[in-house]
Every structure is written in structure tokens, then in C-alpha cells.
Amino acid sequence: MRIINTIKVALRALRRNTMRSILTALGIIIGVGAVIAMVSIGNGAKSQVEAQVASLGENVITVFPGSFTTGGMRSGWGGASTLTVDDAESIRREVANVLGVTPEMRDRAQVLANGLNWNTQVMGESPDYPSIRSWKLSDGAMFTDQDVRSVGKVAIIGKTVADQLFPDGNAIGQTIRIRNIPFKVVGILAAKGFNLFGQDQDDTVVIPYTSHMKRVARRPNINSIMVQAATPEAIDKVQQDITDLLMQRRKGRDQDFTVRNQVEIAQARTATADTMTVLLGVVAGVSLLVGGIGIMNIMLVSVTERTREIGIRLAVGAHGRDVLLQFLIEAVILSSLGGIIGIVIGVGSSELVSMKTGWPVLVSPTSVIVAVAFSAVVGVFFGFYPARKAAQLDPIEALRYE
């Protein structure tokens, strides 16, 4: 019962100075609201990057050209390609825990069909491509290994290309011309949207890599090799095995390729989002600290104003711990109420930002719990000194105080 009575006394004291109590809690309200809003926006950006990386496929390892030295000239990731189809086939045959491999060719070209034209990305791939990229077809079917062996003139098109060249929706079985070479459309990829590099993934035409090499690009080397590991746990081992195999095929030559897995790409892309989230959280946390100092300041003023009241309570039998508890409860109530209001403002602000700007937001329950807990801790930490000062007052001196 004593604790309940103490809480009632504390609430009455706060109600006596309602405006001052609201202004005191304002620092905590702003701090908690800022923490939740900033962290929500940061988490939303991170989740968007992770979703975009996931759209690249499951357990994907990519071999890029580059990282070589020739005649004193050095090149890094993405340099002149020395990768070959034989490299890709060796990976398929000799590396364990590999579900799919596709040699990749990439070029931009003007594609004509149906009296219309569209500049798009033309990809040369193997039939494993949709499986590796976790990319379903909305219509038609993927070309086959026979199409690859026969250098077939068949194509799979993305939704953007289908919309631009065949606005009536009848794309399957139609002919498109890539650099004046006719290709029959046998399938349409499901819509996938933009990737983490800001490129429209649906703005693409996929043809057999042999057709791309011999009919479109007419060059012997491929742009990259995409490999799908059997499980997430196998990614590191497969990546190392690919590196060892390709180095073995180079027979002592300098490494002229770079192997990256999906996790490394995701980490590189989310590192900035993580850094910004931490920085924004720290800045918002400073406002919580300032709010706590405001609480301590007002509580010290309250102790001074209520010195005579404290003296009377001590004179009629209240213990020092009762006075300590009362002022501590007042500080905790101020900070906790500020925290709750701050949560509402923070969640509302993040949703408003999302509506106005289109930025993704992700309100984390953890950030809400931490914000409330931190606001309560702030109340205890910054309220303890004023409460202790009140509890240590001499009753005689307190009763004399004017």
C-alpha cells in the first residue's frame, strides 16, 4: 500500500504543475520519437537492399573478369574479360554442391518488333538462368539445352520489353530483331522490378549464350559466370573450390578473375545503411540525454520549491527513503509518459515520411522496447540525484525554509 500511496502523491504533485510537467517531458518525447523514426527509416532502407539482393537469386556466386596484370597494365573487378565457356563448363563438371551454372553475355541493343523499337539489355544465358535467379516465367517456357547447342534464334523477354514492343499482349510466338537477326519469343519473364543498382530488371531480353556469342556480339569471351550453390552453408566452400579450379586452369598465370558471393554483395550494399542507421540513432540518442538533463533540472527546482512540504513530511514520521521514492517515481513517470508519447509520434512520423517520400520504413519492436526502457532508465538516472537531495534534507532546516 505504501508504494501505491507514494505513486498517488507523485501524480498529484505532477498535476499541480501540468504545463511544467509537459514541457519537462518534451525532451524525452522528442528524443524517443526521433530515435524510433530514424531507426525505422534506416531499417527500411536496409530491408529494401536485402530484398533487392535476394531478387538476384538464392545462394548465388558470381565470377567476374579482372584482377590481372599484363605487360605492366593492371586491371581490377570488371576489367577486360578472359573468362570462357570452358571455365563455366569446368565449374559445372568438377565443383561439388553446384545446382546450376550459366555463362553470361551482356550487351545493349536496339530491338525491333511489331513496327516498334526499344533499346534494352540483351543477355546471353544458359537454361539454368531462371532457376539461379529464382525468376519464374509468366508465360511460355524457357529455351532448352538443345537451343544452346544449335545456336538457336529464340528469346525470353522481360515485362518491360513485352509492354513496349507488344502493347496488345500477344508476344509469345512473335519475332523480334536484334541487330537485324530474327529471334522467336518463346517466353516472358515475370515482373521483378528494380535491382539494388537501380536498374530495371524487367528491361531485358535473354537468349542462349551461344547465340549471343556467335550471332550478336561475335566475341569469344564471356562477361561473367553465375553459379548457384546447393545450400547457404555450401557457399564459402563452393566459392573457394571455384577459385582453386580456375587458378588451376590458368596454369601459373596471374589471377584474372574475381569471385564474389551474394552475402558479400549484400554486406557491401547494407554497410552504408547500417552506418547511417547508427549515426541517426546516436544523434537522436543525444536528444534523449538532453531530455534527461531537463528532467534533472526541473526536479532540482521542484525540490527547492517543495522544501517546506518535504520538511513537514519528515517531521510527521516519513522516512528519507519515502521522500526519495516519491521524487524518483515522479521522474520515472515523467520520462515514461514522454517515452510512450514519443513512440506514437515516432511511428506516426516514420509512416508520414514513407507516405510523402515513398521511402520504405520498418518499425522494429526492439527499437520501441529499447526506447521505452531507455526513457525509464533516464528517469531513474537523472531523477536519483534530486530525489537523494530531497531525502537528505534536515527536517528542522526544511521547516524554517521560506
Report on the structure:
With 402 residues, the protein is of the alpha+beta class. The chain folds into two domains: 2-52 and 268-400, no CATH class; 83-255, no CATH class. The protein contains 13 helices and twelve strands. Strands 4-5-10-7-9-8 form a six-stranded mixed beta barrel. Strands 2-3 form a two-stranded antiparallel ribbon. Helix 2 (18-54) packs across helix 11 (320-357) and helix 3 crosses helix 8 (235-250). The longest helix is centred in the C-terminal third of the chain and has 44 residues, at 262-305. The model is unreliable at 68-74 (pLDDT under 50).
Record the SSE blueprint.
Elements: H1 2-16, H2 18-54, E1 60-65, E2 68-70, E3 73-75, H3 85-94, E4 98-113, E5 116-125, H4 129-132, E6 137-140, H5 145-149, E7 154-157, H6 159-165, E8 175-178, E9 181-189, E10 204-208, H7 209-217, E11 224-229, H8 235-250, E12 257-261, H9 262-305, H10 307-315, H11 320-357, H12 365-391, H13 395-400
Parallel strand pairs: 5-10, 7-9
Antiparallel strand pairs: 1-11, 1-12, 2-3, 4-5, 4-8, 4-11, 6-9, 7-10, 8-9
Helix pairs in contact: 1-11, 2-9, 2-11, 2-12, 3-8, 9-11, 9-12, 11-12
